[in-house]
Automatic annotation (TrEMBL), chains A, B:
GO MF entries: acid phosphatase activity; nutrient reservoir activity
Protein name as it appears in the record: Acid phosphatase
NCBIfam families noted in UniProt: plant-AP
A Pfam cross-reference name: Acid_phosphat_B
The keyword Glycoprotein appears for this protein: yes
Signal peptide: 1-27
Domain of life according to the entry: Eukaryota
Record-linked InterPro entries: Acid_phosphat_B-like, Acid_phosphatase_pln, APS1/VSP, HAD-like_sf, HAD_sf
Keywords: Glycoprotein, Signal, Storage protein
Function text: May function as somatic storage protein during early seedling development.
Entry similarity comment: Belongs to the APS1/VSP family.
């Protein structure tokens, strides 16, 4: 109880400084005042919005509601996002510890890449944490840099999976032709070493939904004889569809929605 | 921003009074001090726990973590639960408004009963908001009273569905033999009037998981020619499995898990 009060006070102080910072920042960024009035921020509404998104009650949303920009900023940068990731990876590790591997090398695990293994938070910070619509050219330019930092909790999970003997498949909607090299390099420079395959989207899957594309990839893996024990992604479209895996885990991501 | 600060202050005041109340209540309830120390309350942890539960990352949990009792109490009684329900039903109504009904009387909608149509919050309040394990006899005695209040947001949705021409099926895991009469009466006294069928669990489904039982009921409805446009429940087991419906909606419920 008293901890909760102390936490609330801490949040109050954080929000106070965020308010001062935002006021200062508004002078620099002409769009801030125009599109996100400080008094439009509504923590309760944005908490409901975020919960609905994470529970898969919202579909096809294109941008974060403008009045939630500061809320999402506070969520992503204030520590709760990391705490949520840590909590979920603890659950995953608990499940992993219960899996009895067959030893035939066919026990598989699937991880998404963007905002699962490596983070795009610095890119989305410039897109007002998802309040701006998806910008394919901008994202491609960012991804080509190969500078996404690892998500520490997922890197830890990845290492446990490798050490436990799982075959880890990284399945991403990133375009094979243009982004394969920078993605391989980025994963390597962040410590994702020892995975079985990185599977990127080839031209034959162009225009298909993530659910259709990723289901087909998983179908092929199951066809090769792999048992998919787990499947982790920040998008419901990583986890829905066929051959989704024995257990699926949804990591938080309130910044964008991939159909 | 300032609204968020005001809200945080409001929450601080709420938590302050909750702390005073809890201190007073501890004198009356000998278990409080023993099992939930006030300083064990951890809002951040409990928010991560709740998010993980709502996003279907936790499976088979039997009780709310003891340190989250006050957090869950504040969530359920402090307004955010209602706000979350209101937000999700707005999303559902938006989807409902887009459905073009065929007019042949075969457009169907499925609603769960407990903590979807009618609320068990007063029962679970006595079970420390889910910190105590499921008590079948206690719950049966409560359900026999037929005094669960309607969840206002879902009653509003129900009325729109009926007026729009959907055939509404209420599908519940409650036992047909012992609870049919009190459930029918309870739904009626709370305004759930005009549904097509209330389907309770018959002896033939005894011991089956909710997913298996509810999937089989939906399969029968689809077999009768119904198109399931929507399916709303507070448990993932209401929404998983076969014939789940064109859209599913997960209502919040951090108090218990039905496998």
């Amino acid at each position: 109880m008293f901890k909760a009060m102390a936490q609330c006070l801490k949040e109050l102080i954080f929000l106070f400084f965020l308010a001062i910072f935002s006021k200062a920042a508004e002078g620099l960024k002409p769009y801030s005042r125009a599109t996100v009035a400080p008094d439009a921020v509504n923590n309760n509404y944005c908490l409901s919005w975020r919960l609905a998104a994470e529970a898969n009650n919202l579909r096809g949303w294109r941008t974060v509601p403008a009045q939630c920009m500061h809320y999402i900023e506070a969520y992503m940068m204030g520590g709760q996002y990391e705490r949520d990731l840590d909590f979920i990876t603890e659950q995953i590790l608990s499940y992993v510890s219960e899996v009895v591997l067959s030893g035939d090398g066919m026990d598989a695990w699937i991880l998404d890449v963007d905002d699962t293994c490596i983070s795009n938070i610095f890119y989305y910070k410039k897109k007002r944490y998802g309040c701006e619509p998806y910008d394919p050219a901008g994202f491609k330019a960012w991804a080509l840099k190969g500078r996404c930092p690892a998500i520490p909790a997922v890197l830890g999970l990845f290492q446990v999976l490798i050490e436990s003997g799982f075959k880890v498949f990284l399945v991403t909607g990133r375009d094979q032709e243009t982004l394969a090299q920078s993605t391989i390099s980025n994963l390597h420079n962040q410590g994702f070493i020892g995975y079985d395959r990185l599977i990127l989207r080839t031209a034959s899957y162009e225009g298909q939904s993530a659910v259709a594309y990723k289901s087909d990839i998983r179908k092929q893996l199951v066809g090769e004889g792999y048992r998919i024990w787990g499947n982790v992604g920040d998008q419901w479209s990583d986890l829905e569809g066929e051959f989704s895996g024995n257990r699926t885990f949804k990591l938080p991501n309130p910044m964008y929605f991939v159909p």
